[in-house]
Specification:
Strand content: under 5%
Number of strands: 0
Order of helices and strands: HHH
Number of helices: 3
Mean pLDDT: 90
Helix content: over 70%
Low-confidence stretches: none
Radius of gyration: 38 Å
Structural class: mainly alpha
Length: 95
Amino acid sequence: MSDLEKQLRDCLARRQPPPDFAGRVMARLPLERRPPVPWMRWAGALAALLAVTAVGLEYRDYRQGERAKEQLVLALEIAAEKLALVERKVSEGRK
């Protein structure tokens, strides 16, 4: 084992904290903790509600666009069939 490895093992070895460690840590903590601000919860809930609503509206618009596209494709297919029918009748009349 190298000297560096031995030094690392010594530095990282488990040790018991001094007896007054917990007291010193507790003394550094502030005596008063600020209570959570109630309006922060409502603000978070409102933000979540707005996000869900916005996503829902976007999805509704997307679905409406998809429905319009399907209707347009159907209308174009019907128009193409009717044009083909008219073209056939015109070419039969020319004969």
